[in-house]
Structure formats: structure tokens, C-alpha cells
User: Fold these one by one.
Assistant:
Number 1:
Amino acid sequence: MPVLEHSSLGQAPPGQEEVLQQFARGDLDAFEALFRRHQAQVYRWIVRTVRDPATAEDLTVETFWRIHRAHARFDPARSFEAWARRIASNAALDYLKSTAHAFAKNAQGWDTPDPVEDLPQPQPPDPGITQEIRTRTVQAFRQLPPKLQVAATLALIEEQPYKEIAEALGISAGAVKLRVFRALRLLRKKLKQQGIEP
Amino acid sequence: MNASEQERIAKLLKTSLPPVGGAKSAPDGTEKDGAQFGRDLWPAMLQRLQQPAAPVAWFESAWFDGALLASVVVWLTFFPAAIPVLLYHL
């Protein structure tokens, strides 16, 4: 079955307005049309945040389930993409919060690899940064508060525009920058505690 | 923390956690796309929609009620003179 997607943000394709209105009234066919059109986009946003393809698939379904549940609150005059992205961000954040406790309790957390390591990886560009330093950096990063992790991941690692991150998280661009700064400051502190001087 | 420190930590972070996909500049200059979407999730979505909503555990729905009741009991224990006032408002 072909996977449809709508890549151009902000421009509603033909018939979109009608579909949105039907969706807001609770029409399942309209929901399916929106699901098929936006699932790839939602998935990509989530996988950038949680960095695990299998989890991202589950969270994509969870996001659309929340979207379906909240159909009556959707205003068809507003952007579905932005709304979906915000719900996706909340779902991803909830997931990271739930795993943060598990990670903190996991005594063997230092050996836990980043799930995205299952995917093809580029070679590290700086041979001066050893595997051990990278592993410890990942683990220290995973110990940061989930809100800071999400902001830093999207802004620094995935290089998403601050404006898009701000919209998705429901905060201002200034607040995103502050979260990124706090994430870096906290990461530096944690690395220094382990004797790593960034 | 100055700008160069921020830059160094950001670089270390990016080296340790390479972008999953669609980043503007992959470290090795190539386009790496781990965010590629592979399969249609509609069947999984349908399955989820057909599942009945999970019942809320009693302790999730009642914790606030319990806390409120406990605070009223504590309040009345320390301030028994408030009992007539409470009865009047009930």
C-alpha cells in the first residue's frame, strides 16, 4: 500500500479544507485521509526526538489516537500540521519522561546504547573524541530533564529551526534557546563530574 | 559558559548523537536519513481505534479525592470549632 504524505508545510492541498471540516465532525474516512497524508511527517518529527524507529512508530499511532480523540477541539481554520506536530511533541515528551525514571534506576545504564545506533551511522569526524567519551556524553545527555533533551536534540542535533521547535513545543523561540542553553550547561556540569573536559 | 564552550559541547553532542535524518549537515558531508518512513501504520491505527479505552485505575482517579478528604479530616482535627461552619455549608 503506498504511503501518502504531504510535504509542503502550510499549503493545504486541494480538498483539504473539506477533509478537515469532516474530521472535526468526527468522520472516520476524513481521519484516515489525514492519517495517510501526515503519518510520515509525524513519524519523522517523533523519530528525531526519541531516536528510536520502533518507538517512533508506536508514538505515531499514539499521536494520531490523541488526534482522533480530540477531533471536536480541532479548528479547521488552523493548520493541521502544526496541531499534529504539537501533539506528537507532547507524546514524545511523555515517552521520554516515562523512560527517564527507568533510566535513572537502571544501574547498567552506562552500557545502554543509543537506539539509533541500529541505523547506519556516519564515521565520527573527530578521531580525538573516543568511543568512551561519546558513550559517556550520550549517557549524561540522557540524564538531562526530558524538556531540555527535546529542545537540544531538535535544535543542535537535528538542526530544526527554532521557530518550528517553538511551535511544536508550544513555547516561544526565546524559551527554546534558553532550554538549549540550560541543556548545554547541565551537560557540561555532568561531563566535568566524570572528569571529561569538553 | 561562553560561546566557544557552548560550541564545543554542542559539537561533542552532535558527534556522540549523530542526526537521525534530514539534518542540514551530516558530519561526513553525506545525507543520512534514518528518519525514512518505511511502512503504512494505518492497520496499527485501526487496531488501536478498535481497542476499548483502558479503564482508569481507582488510585489514579481517586487520589485527589483522597487527598482532599485527608486534608479536611486534618483541618477538623486541629480546628474542631470549624465543624459547625462546615456543616452549615454542606
Note: Chain A touches chain B through 52 residues (CB under 8 Å).
Number 2:
Amino acid sequence: MDSFFTRYRNLLALLAILLVQIVGLAVQVRRTNEGHRTIDAQDSSSVRLIRLWAEALIAPPEEAIHACKMGAIGLWQNYIDLRHVRDQNQQLQDTVDRLRLEQAALLEDARQGERLQDLLSFQHRYIYDTLAAQAIGTSGSDESRVFYLDKGSSDGLRPDMAVITADGIVGKVRDVFPHSAQVLVVNDQTSGAGVILETTRIRGILTGNAAGQLEIVGILADERIKPGEKVLTAGGDLIFPRGLPVGEVEKVIPDPERDSFIDVIVKPAAHLDRLNEVLVITNTQPRFSPQDQQDMATSQNVMGAEAQAIKDQLKASQIMAEHLPGLIDPNLPPDQQPLLDSSNPTPVAHPPQALHPDRFTPRTDTGALPDAGSAPEPDAPQTPAPERNQ
Amino acid sequence: MSVLGVDSRRDLEIRRYPLLAYVLVPLAALVLQAWLPRLLSPYDYFDLPLLATIFFALGRRSPVQGTLMGCALGIFEDALSHHAIGINGVAKTVVGFLAASVGVRIDVENHTIRLILIFLLSLLSSAIFVFIYRVLLGLDLEWQWFTELFRAIGNSLIAMVLFPLLDRLQIRD
């Protein structure tokens, strides 16, 4: 037995290590309600510990490299690459002088613009709190399109926060560490975002394919979708606010798996391969100014008072209806309804007869003035007429 | 290609490196693998942790050490991604074991043999990755064969430059 272990020591070590890893893989995968298998989005404590160790090992050198790179760029741009700076400075000074003159002319327009903005106040309602962060590294794998930020939970980042640039959406925060965070880019195969086509208003799900392209899946074939159409976030995924630019349609291809469906390849608005500085949306709640909030409270109070007044009026009319005799009693047969009661002391009043009939005066078959006792016209509705009481 | 007995070649040609090299080279491979794609994307057809695994496995000619080195680097690589931990771990474990086992039997000093070996081991690593992801775990993954082919070629070319530089780290008696 001893010689067996000695002889096959290498192979046994390999099998043992493979077995441990395969068991570890098995516990990280679960089956969804639809029957699909997926990696558990919430890492177990042991898995998270390994990720934390890896991040703690890799992030400091990456940050150091990034700092060196930025320092070298700054050194080059600020101290070495200064050719023609004097000429540029003179040109800029001339531009400043010209702009000062233009500024005086535009000042009145600017004031008018401010007044209009105050009236509309749209900006106040859609400003989000954002945090600027630097991209410092990637996963190093094409099959895992994630990158790391130099900000973490100590800076207020949390999972599922949207990450954008000025050009468009980038991804969402997947995992957060104390001083760094992992961002899942929208062109990863496991990512997803609700999007809408700007012109056709067709909605779909944005995800990534094997080549790292963005594609909208699950769309029925539609000839209105043309290359160049803008794609925006739809806001239904609870990650990205509505209306952020995603990109534009590059081409439309048939869905290889489902007939009558198409995949829309999207050219991203943000440069997903060249990300340096990004913005993390840390607050997506609409933020109203105190004046807006006061107006809303006033509006709510007014609406409440109006609703109460309408309710009171309805209640009073119901009480009055209970005390007044009705013309239609649901408990009586049709021929015994109060409407047909000849003893009704207040019959329906007819208009008085015209002293000088003209062409607008209703006529009878004989051409005489209409008489309450005469027979109605054949086309006239057959309504019961109460007896004249003259 | 000269073929010697396993024990005699192992005794003759085991390479020793400073302890710092065992720490810094894999660490540098992981850091650069995470950082360089930001500069070179989408032309990042290389896998530096795989090259570090193969280099030490070929140099040490110990299957157990190659297995452990591949396992550690693969798991760290997985930990930096959002995949399940162990996919790259298994792939690089197998590669480390095979590289060390092959290194005992053939002359890996020959550049052509080294090139072919790294090319084949890279393809094997990719194949194991896809097999585990799609078959063993049953997860959805689109992949492109030419990307894996380019990566194998890129690994071979980088190794042609990198391995002679790393060979200078070995301790000579």
C-alpha cells in the first residue's frame, strides 16, 4: 500500500486537487425556477473570502501602476511636452478678450434663460448623486468582462449601482470591497439592462455576446429598426435611470435560435474598452427642492379638500334621494311604475301653444298645431303621454 | 528530441529559482494580466498566469509543484472575475501537471519544442475551461474558436521572449 501511494503520488495529488475544486464549483452553481443553471449571484462567505484575498493582493500593485501611469502622463503633458505653448497662450488670451465682449452681449439672454429654468425646474428633478472613480484593472479574461474601480464601500459604493460616463452607460457595480469595487460591464454575456429604441419605442433587453458586442435580444422582427437609431435605457431594470444613452443601432441580424425574432447589434456610446474615469450613480431618487416639496404638499392638501367636498356632496344627494319619491321603483312591475300613475299631482308640463305658428312649430298630420290629445307621428318615439290637466 | 529516463533527467535538470521569484513572477503575471487588457483591448490574446504556470512546471519538473502552482494561479484568476471559482483553477491545474510531466520526458530547451508545447497547452487550457463551463456546470457561454487560437499563438510568441528572460533568474551552481 505504501508503495502504491509512493508510485502514484503525483497522480493522486492531481486527482485530490481536482476533486476539491470540482466540489467547490458544484456548490457555487444553482438551478433557477425556469430550469436554467446559473452561478449564485450572492457569493458564499468562503468564496467571498477568496475574492477578497485576490483583490487585496492585486489591487495595490494595480493602483501603484495606475498612479505611475498618471504621473508619467502628467509629467509629460505638464513639464516636457510644452512646445508651442507660448503661441497657444497668446491665442487663448486673444480668445478670452473676444469672449469677454460676447459675454456682455449674452448676459441678458442668460438671465432670461435662468428665469425660464426656474419656471420649468426640470433639472432639479433629475439630478442624481454621482461619485467619480478611476478604473484601475480588469479581470484579465475575455469571458469575464469586469473591471475594478479605485473606490469601494468606504466611499459609499454598494452593489447594483449604475456606472456611467458622460457618453453613456458602462455597467453596474457587482461586488464591493472596502477600497475597491468590481463593475460588470454591459457587454458581458451575463449582464442585462432594459433599453428602448428612441424612435420606434421598441423595448428589449441589452446584453453582451461572445465577441464583446452589445446586442438587444428578444425583439420581434420589425422593419422600422434601422442602423443609426439611438438606444436609451428604459428604466425598468431598477439599475439604470431612464433615458440614459446606450448607443446606436449598428445592424440587425436574425435570432439564430428563434424564428421571427431578431438581435439588434448596438454600437456603444461609451468607450467600453478605454475606460479611465467613470461616474457611479449613488442615488437615483428624484430630488426636489424645498419649494417643490412645499408646492407638492399644498397640492396634496388641495386635492384632499376637493375630494372630501365631492364625497360630502355625494352623500347629501344620496340622503335627499332616499327622502324624495322616485319615478322608477325597482320593486314594482313596469305597468305599475309611479311614472305612469295618473294620480300624479305634478305632471310633466308641456310648452304652451304658439300664438303665431311658423315653420319651426311642430306640426301634426293634419297640419294643425300639435295637440296633446292627438296621436303621435309614426316616426316619433312611443312614449306614454300623461293626460292634460286643463 | 532527446529522450532520457525520467529520474535521470529530473535529477540532472531540475532548475532552482530564488524564493522571491516564486512569489513575484506569479504576482506580476496576475497584476499584468489584470492591467494590460485596459491598454491592449481587444488585442489581449495572452494568458500570463498560464505562462507562469508552464514556466515553473517545466523548470522544476515536479508534477506536484506544477499542479499546486497552476491551482493557485487559476483560483486567483477566477477570484478576479465574476465566474465561479475553480474553472480556471481546474484548467491550470491540469496544465501544470501535464507541463511538468512532459518536461521530465522531453528536451524543453529546444525553442521549437517549447513553442509547440505552449501552443498545445494553451489550447488544452481553453478547451478545459469551455468544457467545465458548458458541460460540467451546464452554464451558457458563447465562445469563439479563433479567439482561443489567437490566444494560443500569442502565448507561444510571448513565451519565446519571456522564458529566456526568466531563465536568467535560476540559481546556477
Note: Chain A touches chain B through 55 residues (CB under 8 Å).
